[in-house]
TrEMBL record:
Residues 38-143 form the SET domain. PROSITE patterns: SET. Pfam families: SET (PF00856). This is SET domain-containing protein. It comes from Edaphochlamys debaryana. It comes from the Eukaryota. InterPro entries: Flavunoidine_N-MTase, SET_dom, SET_dom_sf.
Length: 208
């Protein structure tokens, strides 16, 4: 189906998808960047994804139009440009390697501390981390790909495990990262960091 824009009313919105708990969250903190209040314009960007743009803030988010099982691939991704430095739009694929995503609309995927997708930068596939239903917002955990973000922000995902300030994996402890899936690049960087930290610790230094 070709891309088409549909204006949704507030009534349609609340009747459609938001469970009561999410509605409270949306009312409390989403107006600034999430297109869940004041209505939104929806654009079908593919047969499985829809971009919603908030009428009030102009911020975008990407929503699923299809069901995906955990582990399923939503799409392959590539890059329009490769930068040596991060921007708020880039995804890190290696040391000094930051891509501007292709297709471009993938950059509307917001961060959540309880993500449902992962940009796997080893395979260049966008993977579902758990079951995704049509109408679910697609979110990834930004520190799963980003070591040191150019534009840290205070997270508004409103999830129970929300970490607050999101600045990249370099700013998070193992405990904070928990069991979240990370790219191979970030997992390796953490191993290097923690190996460096333990060899620096006084208990490991030979003072004899
Ligand atoms: C690549 S953009 C994501 C899409 C963006 N919302 C848009 O309008 O196109 C990344 C920016 O979105 C905002 N953002 C994404 N997830 C967020 C979250 N959970 N809490 C607060 N801001 C978020 C931050 O400003 C971040 O720098």
């Amino acid at each position: 189906m070709s891309a088409q824009a549909i204006a949704h009313s507030m009534e349609e919105l609340s009747a459609k998808a938001l469970p009561a708990s999410r509605k409270v969250c949306a009312d409390k903190c989403a107006a600034e960047y999430r297109p869940l209040s004041s209505g939104f314009v929806s654009t079908f960007v593919s047969d499985w994804a829809e971009r919603r743009q908030c009428n009030l803030s102009g911020h975008n988010a990407l929503y699923a139009r299809k069901q995906f099982k955990a582990g399923e691939v939503l799409c392959e991704f590539g890059w329009r440009d490769l930068l040596e430095y991060p921007t708020y739009l880039t995804v890190q694929t290696g040391e000094d390697k930051h891509i501007l995503l292709a297709p471009e609309w993938l950059e509307h995927i917001n961060h959540s501390c309880e993500p449902n997708v992962l940009f796997n930068t080893a395979t260049f596939k966008l993977e579902a981390l758990r079951e995704v239903q049509p109408g679910d917002e697609l979110c990834f955990f930004y520190p799963s790909t980003e070591w040191a973000m150019s534009s840290p922000f205070e997270c508004k995902c409103c999830k129970p495990s929300c970490l607050g300030l999101i600045a990249g994996a370099s700013q998070l402890s193992r405990e904070q990262l928990g069991a979240r899936r990370l790219t191979d690049f970030i997992a390796n960087r953490l191993d290097e960091r923690d190996a460096g930290a333990s060899s620096d610790s006084p208990s490991n230094s030979n003072s004899d």
